[in-house]
Amino acid sequence: LEIGVKVFAESFKEGSRVHSNTAYLTFVRVDGNGKPVKAIEAIPESEDEKRRYEEALQRRENRLKTRIKHN
């Protein structure tokens, strides 16, 4: 599971808002023994969901490549 988070800094005095950070948090479902369990697969429906799903798959692939290089 991947959750996207955007952080904004706001100046109430000036009425401005600036995007300061973006992060993607990943979570793994585990069983009672702490072992990973396959989660229910998401089925993207809208064009936006399909785009986000593909982008998430690319980020996952990049994470796995990085993990392999460091192990």
Short summary:
This protein has one helix at residues 47-70, and strands at 2-11, 16-26.
Q: What does this entry look like structurally?
A:
This protein has 71 residues and is α+β, with helices and mostly antiparallel strands. Helix content is 34%, strand content 30%. The chain has one domain. The chain has a two-stranded antiparallel sheet with strand order 1-2. It is extended and about 50 Å long. The relative contact order is 0.16. The model has no long low-confidence stretch (mean pLDDT 93).
List keywords for this structure.
single chain; 71 residues; alpha+beta; two-stranded antiparallel ribbon; 1 helix; 2 strands; extended
Blueprint (SSEs and pairs):
Layout (H helix, E strand, L loop, with lengths): L1 E10 L4 E11 L20 H24 L1
Antiparallel strand pairs: 1-2
Order of helices and strands: EEH
Tally of DSSP β-strands: 2
Computed structural class: alpha+beta
Main sheet, how many strands, which sense, barrel?
2 strands, antiparallel
Widest sheet: strand order?
1-2
- The low-pLDDT segments are none
End-to-end separation: 23 Å
Number of domains: 1
Taken from the alpha-carbon principal axes, the silhouette is extended
Average pLDDT, rounded to a whole number, is: 93
Q: What is the tally of helical segments? A: 1
Strand content: 25-35%
| Helix content class | 25-40%
Radius of gyration (Å): 17 Å
